[in-house]
UniProtKB/TrEMBL annotation:
Residues 114-270 form the Fido domain. InterPro entries: DUF4172, Fido, Fido-like_dom_sf, Fido_containing, WH-like_DNA-bd_sf. This is DUF4172 domain-containing protein. It comes from the Bacteria. PROSITE patterns: FIDO (PS51459). PANTHER family: FIC FAMILY PROTEIN, FIDO DOMAIN-CONTAINING PROTEIN DDB_G0283145. ATP binds at D211, G212, N213, G214, R215, I216, G217, R218, Y248, Y249. One of its GO terms (molecular function) is ATP binding. The active site is at H207. The keyword Nucleotide-binding applies. Keywords: ATP-binding, Nucleotide-binding. Signal peptide: none annotated.
C-alpha cells in the first residue's frame, strides 16, 4: 500500500463539497455570530473571554500530546505576553510558557505569510529547553518517520512520512501552496475551513519535525482560519479534537491513503463547527460568571470568592465530583463549620445547587 505522498497525484488534493456545503455554511453563520457577540462586549470582558479561549487551546493542544500543563502557569504566561501583568510573573515551567508564547505569536501574526523561518521560530518557542531533539530545523534522521501505536510485539504502523532527504523540498512546496492560497493570492482558496483542512493534512503528512508536528500543525490550521476569515478566530480547535482523539487519528490515517480528501474534509468541518459551538458556549459561560460575580460580590467573603473562581475555572463541564466541605477546607484552609456555613450561604444566594444530602452532599454551579 502506498501513502498519499508516494502517489503520482501528490499533492494535488481533490474533493467534493456537496456533502459538506451545509456545514461550511453553518460554520460561516456561527463564526459571524460569535464575532458580533464579542465585538458588542465591553473591553475587559472581551479580554477575559479571549484569555479563556487562548488558555484552552494551549492546554488542550498539549494534552493531545500527553503533556499536562498547569492552568495557572499557562495563564500567567499568556498574561505576561499580552502585557496584562503589572510586573511579569515568573513561570518556571518552560513548556507552559512556550505553548502560551506560540499561541499569542500565531494570533498576533495571523495575516502574515509564512516561511521556513516562521515555522522554525514557532518550533523554538515550543522546544526552548529541549535538548534531545533537533530544534528549529527540519528532521535529518535517516530512520523512517513513522506514526506507530501499541507496545512491543503489538506495534502497528499507521503512517510513514517522506524520508528526511526530501523534507526541505516538500516544505518549500507546502509553504508556496500556503502563501498562494491566502487571501489575494494567485490560487486563493476562499473557504477558511477547506483551506485549513488541507493545510493541516498536508503538513501532518510531511511531518517535517522530529517532534511537535501535531502542535505546529494545529497552530497552522488556526492561522489559516484566521487569515482566510480576516480576523483572529475565536475558537479552540484542540479543545474539540482532544475530546475525541481517536476519531482525529483515524481520520488522518484514512486520509493518508489517497489524495481524494472529501472524507477528511467532512471530519474537519465537523470538528471546526463543533469547536465554534463550544466556544460560543464558553463565551456564554464566561458572561454568566461575570454577571453572577457582579450581582453577589458585596455579599460574599474572600474564601467564597476563591472557591467560586476555582469552580468556574473548570468551565461549563464543571468541577469533578462537585464541591464538598472537604475540598472547601483544603482550598481555603478553614474549619469544617465555616466551610459548611460558607457553602450553604452560596446555595442560599442561588450560585450553587446542592446534590445529595448528609455527609455526601456536594455542590455544583447553578449554570
Ligand atoms: N496517521 C496518523 N495517526 C495519528 N496521528 C497522526 C497521523 N498522521 C499524522 N498525525 C499527526 O501527528 C501528530 C503527532 O506527531 P508529533 O509527535 O511530531 O507531534 P507532537 O505535537 O509532538 O504530538 P502531539 O500531536 O501528540 O502533541 C498527531 O497529533 C497528528 O497531528
Amino acid at each position: 500500500m502506498s501513502y498519499n505522498w508516494e502517489l503520482s497525484d501528490w499533492p494535488n488534493f481533490t474533493f467534493s463539497t456537496s456533502k459538506i456545503d451545509g456545514k461550511l455554511y453553518a460554520f460561516a453563520q456561527e463564526t459571524g455570530e460569535v464575532n458580533a457577540l464579542l465585538t458588542a462586549l465591553p473591553d475587559n470582558i472581551r479580554q477575559e473571554t479571549l484569555l479563556e479561549l487562548i488558555l484552552s487551546e494551549a492546554i488542550k493542544t498539549s494534552a493531545i500530546e500527553g503533556e499536562f500543563l498547569s492552568r495557572e502557569d499557562v495563564m500567567s504566561s499568556i498574561k505576561n505576553n499580552l502585557g496584562l501583568n503589572k510586573t511579569a510573573e515568573v513561570v518556571k515551567d518552560k513548556k507552559a510558557s512556550g505553548i502560551a508564547d506560540l499561541m499569542i505569536e500565531v494570533r498576533n501574526t495571523f495575516d502574515k505569510k509564512i516561511d521556513g523561518h516562521t515555522l522554525h521560530h514557532w518550533h523554538k518557542l515550543l522546544f526552548a529547553e529541549t535538548l534531545h531533539i533537533n530544534v528549529a530545523a527540519w528532521r535529518k534522521s535517516s530512520e523512517p518517520m513513522r506514526i506507530i501505536s501499541g507496545g512491543i510485539n503489538k506495534e502497528q504502523i499507521h503512517f510513514e512520512a517522506p524520508p528526511s532527504s526530501i523534507v526541505a523540498k516538500e516544505m518549500d512546496r507546502f509553504l508556496s501552496w500556503f502563501n498562494h492560497t491566502m487571501p489575494n493570492g494567485s490560487k486563493e482558496i476562499k473557504d477558511p475551513v477547506i483551506r485549513a483542512g488541507i493545510a493541516h493534512l498536508y503538513f501532518e503528512s510531511i511531518h517535517p519535525y522530529e517532534d511537535g508536528n501535531g502542535r505546529i500543525g494545529r497552530a497552522i490550521a488556526e492561522k489559516v482560519l484566521s487569515q482566510t476569515l480576516g480576523r483572529p478566530v475565536m475558537l479552540s480547535l484542540s479543545n474539540t479534537i482532544e475530546r475525541n482523539k481517536n476519531a482525529y487519528y483515524q481520520a488522518l490515517k484514512n486520509a493518508q491513503k489517497s489524495n481524494e480528501i472529501s472524507k477528511w474534509l467532512n471530519y474537519f468541518v465537523e470538528t471546526v463547527l463543533n469547536a465554534q459551538l463550544d466556544a460560543k458556549q464558553m463565551i456564554d459561560f464566561t458572561l454568566k460568571k461575570i454577571k453572577v460575580f457582579n450581582s453577589i460580590k458585596e455579599k460574599i467573603n474572600d474564601r467564597q470568592i476563591k472557591v467560586l473562581q476555582k469552580m468556574y475555572s473548570f468551565g461549563p463541564g464543571g468541577f469533578e465530583g462537585g464541591m464538598t466541605a472537604k475540598k472547601y477546607i483544603s482550598i481555603t484552609e478553614t474549619s469544617k463549620a465555616t466551610a459548611t456555613r460558607d457553602l450553604q450561604g452560596l446555595e442560599k444566594l442561588g450560585v450553587l445547587v446542592a446534590v445529595g444530602g448528609g455527609r455526601s452532599v456536594n455542590y455544583h454551579l447553578n449554570y
